[in-house]
Amino acid sequence: QMLPEHTHAGSELTLVLKGSYRDQTGHYRPGDVADMMGDASHSPIADAEEGCICLIATEGRLKFKSLLARFVQPFTGI
């Protein structure tokens, strides 16, 4: 699965617990921590076979780039 391209209202820390994902900054596996700054744009894609389970801490809401993602955001809680 893919999370639409977005930036952040603040920093975002992602700890991969199981599986893996990749984005514009690299490939992350169990135990890896990604530290994204608020102005960084990325679109994480989970491994097609394993999927990915992550623990994510953010300072603010995600800022989606696409109009559709921004429209449905209030209904998703992300």
What would your notes on this structure say?
Helices cover 13% and strands 42% of the residues. The protein has one helix at residues 67-76, and strands spanning 6-8, 12-19, 21-23, 26-28, 33-36, 45-46, 52-58, 62-64. It is globular, with a radius of gyration of 12 Å. The model has no long low-confidence stretch (mean pLDDT 79). Strand 3 (21-23) and strand 4 (26-28) form a beta hairpin.
In short:
The chain has 78 residues and is mainly beta. The protein has one helix and eight strands. The two termini are 15 Å apart.
C-alpha-based Rg, rounded: 12 Å
The percent of residues in helical segments reads 10-25%
Q: If you average the pLDDT, what whole number results?
A: 79
Q: SSE order, as H and E?
A: EEEEEEEEH
Number of strands: 8
Q: Say what oligomer this is.
A: single chain
Tell me about the biggest sheet? 3 strands, antiparallel
Q: Tell me the structural class.
A: mainly beta
Shape: globular
Fraction of residues in β-strands: 35-45%
Please list the strands of the largest sheet in the order they lie side by side. Answer: 5-2-7
| Number of discrete helical segments | 1
Distance between the termini: 15 Å
**Uncertain regions: pLDDT < 50 for 5+ in a row?**
none
